[in-house]
Every structure is written in C-alpha cells, then in structure tokens.
Amino acid sequence: MIAYILRRLVALLLIMFLVTLIVFFLVWQLPVKDRLQVYLPTIPSSIGLDPVKLAQFERSVIERRGLDDPFPVQYVYWASHLLVGDWGYSPVWKEPVLSGILSRAPATAELALAAMIPSLGLAIVLGSLSARHRTRFADYAIRGAAFAAWGFPPFILSLMLLNVFYVNLGWFPLGRLTSSGSIIVASSQFHSFTGLYLVDTLLNGNLTLFLEALQHLVLPATVLALAQWALFTRVMRSSLIAELDQDYVTLARAKGLPERAVVGVHARRNAILPVISVGSTAVSLSITNIALVEIVFNFNGLARSATLAMLQLDTPVAVGLTIFTCLVTVLSSLIGDILYGLFDPRVRAA
User: Fold this and answer.
1) What span, in angstroms and rounded, lies between the C-alpha atoms of 35 and 28?
2) Are 93 and 309 in contact (CB under 8 A)?
3) Do 80 and 24 contact (CB within 8 A), yes or no?
4) Cys-Cys crosslink for 119: which of 35, 221, 229, 277, Cβ 3.0 to 4.6 Å?
5) Do residues 111 and 293 lie in contact, with contact meaning Cβ atoms separated by under 8 Å?
6) Cβ atoms within 10 Å, residue 32
7) Which segments of 95-173 does DSSP mark as H helices, in order?
8) Which domains does the chain have, with CATH numbers?
9) What is the rounded distance in angstroms from the CA atom of residue 170 to the CA atom of residue 162?
C-alpha cells in the first residue's frame, strides 16, 4: 500500500509542476509593470507621488525579483517563493494572498463537506434501491428525481429557495452567522480550532451557536448537494446493476445467501468503486457552483471573496486561487486513489 501511495504522489507532483509551469507562462505574458504589482503591497511613504522616486523604487523591485531575467530563471524564482508561502500581495484583500486564502478556505470547505457527505450517503442508499428495483416504480421515481436535480440550473434553484425560505418564510438566514454570532466567534472566549463553525462551536460547547451555523448552511448546502446527489445516484445505480449481473452474484444466490447479504456485502462493495472515483473529481467540478452559491447566499467563503476580487482585476488572487484549486483537486484525487485501493486490492498492484 505504501508503494502504491508513493507512486500516486510522484504522479501528482508531476501534475502540479506542469500546472504551475502553465500558470506562470500565462502570467509571464503580462508586461513587467503588471507583474510588478504582485510584489508591491504598499509604496513607502517616503516616495509619495514623486514620479522619479517611484520609477527608481519600481526598478529596484524589478531587479530584486528578477522580473527581467529569462523565463526559466523567473519560473524557478517564482516557484521557490510559492513553496515558502510567498504568493504575492492582493490589492483588493489588502493582505498576502496565501494568508487570505487560508483564512477564507475553511468556510468554503465546510460548505462543500456539508453538501458532499449527505449527498454521497443518500446516493448510495437510493442508487442501490433503484438498482435492486429496476424497471419498477421506485426505480423510475429515483431516476426521474436524479435527472431533474441534475438538469435544474443551480442559479435558478438558489433564487427559488431564497425567495421561499428566506424572503417569505424567514426560516433560513443568509450569510454564515448572524452579527451577534460573528461577535462571539471573534471574541477571545471562543477558540477556533479548525475554522469550521460546526466543529468549533461543538468543541467550545456552544450548542446554540452550532444550531445557528447549521441553519445558515442549509440552503447553500442543499443547492450544492442536489447536483452532486444526482450524479452519484446515477453512477451508483449503473454500477450496482452491472455488479448484480456478474457470475459471482449468481453463485452467491445459488448458494442460498439472503438477498440483503448478496447486495450489501458483495455487490455493493464493488459498486461503490466508481462512486469513489467520481466523488474525488466532483471537487473540481463543483467549484463554479460553489462560487455562485456563496455569492447568492452571501456566504463569505473563499470562492465568493476570490470571485469579487478577480472582478476587480486582482491578478495575484487569480493566480493564487488557480494554484490552490489545483492543489485541492490533486489532493482529493490522491484521497480517492487511496480509498479505491483500500476497497479493491487489485488496484494497488497496478
């Protein structure tokens, strides 16, 4: 298993190298003046608006950062700074890009997990039910719901849920917490362990704040979960149907094993493998939906903040988000490969 993981790590490191190379090549096409802004958080007060002093200061930064050097030299310099956490400075966020990403990422991660975990669990149950009762009413109902959920535009669904449950009923508020809840989280009495409010509120023993955070998550997580549930359900159904037609299932039935054991112990274990594979790639596929949902529901996560910054032509944030997204996608792919290997030992020998 260790050799299998090491092989995957080497492959994923190569992918990250290629991604950073492509990203830097695109950034390298910008004029030196534009790339210079990545390294200029503030202009020293001693320079002021003096154009001569400003030009001298910019030239010193260009020489120090090697922005006139050949492409390979600049890439090595840039990549080495990435590794030590120097991802540039965001003029919109008014802070270093990496610290801005890390401070906002837990909110988006919490939203993604709140959508992924229930949708995956429900898909395994309903996908199995649909496969076991294929061509019957339950199968048609589940498949119809999955097709509807998959085809329904998330933007329209977000506005519908917003209008019904926030505007008319007032059940689920916008944002991540109320103003009073945000004050509690920002206070010295509240200890932030993970940045995930559902986890941290429980660790702080504040059940009221936990319920408030959960209430704020319901609507955006529901929008994200529906599309994921539809995809996982369809994959689970198709995979389980294929497994139920295998010879080993026929043999298990011939031996007199109960249907629950045949499906639950034997067929479903193998049918889950494609779901794991799809789930590991669903992270990158849902990034666009996450940004849209965070904006609609005023959920202050990384996707929303980065999108608003990029609309103001914040190049450092655009580059940083690209690298961070690729890194998350690569890590989720690695986790999917490890889980795949745990469920199917044959994969580890490949």
Assistant:
1) 8
2) yes
3) no
4) 229
5) yes
6) 12
7) 97-132, 137-151, 154-161
8) 2-96 (no CATH), 102-348 (1.10.3720.10)
9) 9
Task: Return the structure tokens found at 38.
Answer: 């990545």
pLDDT tens-place values along the chain, 350 residues long: 677 677 777 888 888 889 889 988 888 887 777 777 666 655 555 555 567 777 777 777 777 777 778 888 888 888 888 888 888 888 888 888 899 999 999 999 999 889 988 998 899 889 888 888 888 898 899 999 988 888 888 888 888 998 899 888 888 888 888 888 888 888 888 888 888 999 999 999 899 999 999 999 999 999 988 888 988 998 888 888 888 888 787 787 787 777 777 777 677 777 887 887 777 777 666 777 888 899 989 898 898 999 888 888 888 888 889 899 888 888 887 777 777 766 666 555 55
Contact residues for 269 (Cβ-Cβ < 8 A; gap 6+): 343
Distance of alpha carbon 112 from the chain centroid = 6
The token pair at 12 is 């994923």
